[in-house]
Amino acid sequence: MDWRRVGLEAGSPSEEAVAVAQMKKLSTEELSHVPSYTVCSYWEAGLGSKLPDSRANAVTTHWCLHSASASLRRGVMEGLLTRCRALPAWATCSPQLSGYVPHRFHHRAPGRGKRLALSRMFQPQNLREDQVLSLEGRSGELTCKSQRLMLQVGLIHPASSGCYHLLPYTVRAMEKLVRVIDQEMQAIGGQKVNMPSLSPAELWRATSRWDSMGKELLKLRDRHGKEYCLGPTHEEAITALIASQQTLSYKQLPLLLYQVTRKFRDEPRPRFGLLRGREFYMKDMYTFDSSPEAARQTYSLVCDAYSSLFDRLGLQCVKVQADVGSIGGTMSHEFQLPVDVGEDRLAVCPSCGFSANMETLDLSQTNCPACQGPLTKTKGIEVGHTFYLGTKYSSIFSAQFTNVHGKPSLAEMGCYGLGVTRILAAVIEALATEDCIRWPSLLAPYQVCLISPKKGSKEEAAAELTGHLYDHITEVVPQLQGEVLLDDRTHLTIGNRLKDANKFGYPFVIIAGKRALDDPAHFEVWCQNTGEVVFLTREGVLELLSQVQVV
Length: 551
Hints:
Probable proline--tRNA ligase, mitochondrial, Pro-tRNA_synthetase, 21 strands, five-stranded mixed beta sheet, 18 helices, single chain, alpha+beta, transit peptide, nine-stranded mixed beta sheet, ligase, about 20% strand
């Protein structure tokens, strides 16, 4: 039967009567096959008892969407509401969804009764050394601490050479890092944009970088033969964007535009995990000023923001004189984190504070060019890079503004990069022990890990206290909502779970052990970043955690 023809779409009384008459002849089984938009007349015809429970919700929805008399619609809705209220727990959906409580996303703060449980986390751990080696193939490739630890605890997983899956803990840490970056960039007037990863070849040919970048530039053609590259940086794209704006005035300058996006580089030999890969996240900012003097002021402003960022993360980065490389310009500095695994060789003068990448100096030079004092050699990881570009790009693309005299002038440019995923690996290199990850407090994926007693142990009576403590923390310390994780793997001993927690690097690990049975209960609190272990009451725990800062 064509139910669309006997439905209520036309809305005339005669058609409704025909539909009702025809429906009365159907069995319950036949009724279950009638489309939802025609079953509304069942109710008016007194056939509601034949309608399967699972169709009640669909009837409500479709009845509201199709035309019918207002009085008939009111009667149907009242009947539906009465029927639905009589069903257990409004069970108008599939059995799998009845009683369903929406699961929290990793960034959503759980309320009472919705605790973040470790057993539900996707975290493929490989805590045996031989498992970690098999992930990367040859054992010789595991040449740095951050790579080994991040693979071991399941922060990353190799996808292909130089490319990694970033797993939930790492994504949380990266999102926090991006929030800190946003705060620092926007504090100096930065505006966030997002540019395509695919960049047309003609832009790069205009600056001659299509050829000069060599094989590191990942190139491709579309089905029409048009050439593109996967951008390792966006000087060409942003300058072309600004050049397209014909009404830019000096009153709008300085203009600071930045993004945090994936970048691509065809590394000849990817290594060190996230420290040197083919695909990575970077924050790149591009600035446009009205004069060289104003551009240098902006340059200093951004460098100060970088220093502030690293200070907030607790990283002792050094700003060093650097080469402009393939990006070009007339001035450049790198922000280097001194660690032994670093690939850059640095020269630092303890007397006057001069510092430089050795590639900018004569290799035989042993004295500081500023004060002639002895230079100290060290290694570092480049986590930030700044360039004063002048008019190198704006002159090619005619990126102009109207100056104070009403005449067109070329914009003075700067560009500034931060290696986002590289910073995550670099902080582990700098702060972690050989066996355990340590995070800057602001970047820790979770601030607190609660460990409940083992099932069947003498302390099991304190298990309920652990849950209560979880709820009190998230209610009394609002900034920690979504930051507390409950290790509910009660089939494991407290010792085994504490060992795992140490590896993950939660800033605070709280254990309900033997003293949780005291009156009042005392919890064992491990402050991972200071190495302290203290026993605190519930009130003491809340007071301690109330001081924690998050982003």
